[in-house]
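# nightly structure sweep
# worker-07 picked up a monomer target from the shared queue
# config: single-sequence mode, recycle default, output format = structure tokens
# input follows
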Amino acid sequence: MNDFFKYIQKYFNYVKDFLSIHLIDIGNTSITLWTLLYFIFLAWLLFFITAKLRKWMIYKVLSKSKVELGVRLAVGTIIRYGVLILGLIIVIQTVGINLSTITILAGALGIGIGFGLQNVTNNLVSGIIILFERPIKVGDRIQVGEVFGNVMMISMRATMILTNDNISVIVPNSEFISSTVINWSHNDRNVRFSIPVGVAYKEDPENVKKILLEVADKEDGVLKNPESVVLFKEFGDSSLNFNLLIWTSSYITTPGFLKSKLYFEIFKKFRENNIEIPFPQRDLHIKNTEFQISQSKIEKD
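# output follows
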């Protein structure tokens, strides 16, 4: 039994000596392996607790009020980062590191790091503005630059957009503040689309209007209110040009499918009613210069 306790004590001393290995000095503080492990454990515990605190604030405390989810997310995130900063200061003091030494070190590195983190800071501030002002929110159908899709997630640094091709595009939050953003569902899910149609000059515009409205009325994806409208746009080079204006809420994410269905039905109805869809026509005049030159030479001879 005594041998067992001696073995345990020997093993304990070995671990103690291993954890007492000196790594680095920060000011007057000697950092050992034990200090590093202790700091890592406390930091991990702090991040874990603040993550739970954020969820509790968002989905338990603030959910009882009438505050929108986006604002609750922003408030919860700000509270978490505030607690993290305060907690890290306490953790650093707990492990025995002098904060004045870290301040000097941070000041030396701050200038160089600051230039490198300008974009990151810009995106973080933009993320806070987005969460509070709500120009976009999760579920919106938006277009920013050449990216067109649904907002799936808004984080502090970037926003994830899912396109119709099931491709996730990560857009920095600063793009939504500095660029023009088209939000198709900012007010509601009702969107109007324009369907251009051209017919031959010999066709009756009133008959064309009647057929287009019938096609729109029979399509389930087209809203009955607001009503569809047909505009006589212009007298084109080869056709009379109309615009069929329809409203939809179910095809906001796939407008191409709705337009395709309407064009199929319009073509079918035009064929049934013998309405001609024109194609561009041009008059081509060819001058045979070579033949005229040869004929002139013959006459001279």
